[in-house]
Amino acid sequence: MSCCSHEAHQHDDPERGREYSLYTKIDFQTLDCLNETIEGSGASVFKPWDLRKDKSKFVESDLDEELLFNFSFTGSVKLKGIIVIGGGGESDPSHLKVFKNAVPVSFDDAGRHAEQEFDLQHDKDGVVEYQTKVARFNNCESLSLYFDKNFGADETKICYIGLRGDFSEAQKRGVVICTYESSAQLKDHKTPGASDYSAHGVS
């Protein structure tokens, strides 16, 4: 039996750019997006924070509303948060399943139990963060992100996927840990009518 929690942090501040730099640790040679309309377009949604609202680069599903990303990191990651910006309206993704260290995941595989699931919101500015159950995402060397539903359109459109967490890279003389996170700022951006925390996680 699953249980939903509501813990998505909503804010926007200059530190977000540093927090959401984990995309630079993706091994893009391993990135594959299943059911994308234009080959290679899936990689374009992993981009710098200050380009998150750029709608000129996006990925759109082809035959139906499903999109499935598989990729590896260049080291080990502790995943803490995810932000998703859709194309707007009914084409925005409405549900996400996250798999750890299971690459490659196929559409047939994606029906099984995931490490975590999220009910997504419309979020044109990237202010809603879906916080992971961190203990489940330690020592994460690869991720599979399965967007299986949207808000009613025939195709799903995604313009930005942001990842926040800690990155560890094995070195000859030990381990170097890069932390892509900072303390929350007091001047948080709040969407009118929305609570400060409204993320949707499924255990």
Please tag this protein with its features.
203 residues, mainly beta, two-stranded antiparallel sheet, 10-stranded antiparallel β-sheet, disordered N terminus, globular
Provide structural commentary.
There is one protein chain. This protein is mainly β and 203 residues long. It contains one helix and twelve strands, in the order ββαββββββββββ. It has one helix spanning 16-19; strands at 4-6, 8-10, 26-34, 59-60, 67-86, 93-100, 116-119, 128-131, 140-150, 157-171, 174-180, 200-202. Strands 2, 3, 4, 5, 6, 7, 8, 9, 10 and 11 form a ten-stranded antiparallel sheet that branches. Residues 1-7 and 182-200 have low confidence and may be disordered.
Largest sheet entry: 10 strands, antiparallel
The value of Rg in angstroms is 16 Å
> Overall 3D geometry?
globular
Kindly name the structural category.
mainly beta
Number of strands: 12
Q: Which ranges are low-confidence, i.e. pLDDT below 50, for 5 or more consecutive residues?
A: 1-7, 182-200
The arrangement of helices and strands along the chain is EEHEEEEEEEEEE
Terminal CA distance reads: 9 Å
- Indicate the mean pLDDT: 85
- Helicity range of the residues? under 10%
Count of helices?
1
What percent of residues are in strands? 35-45%
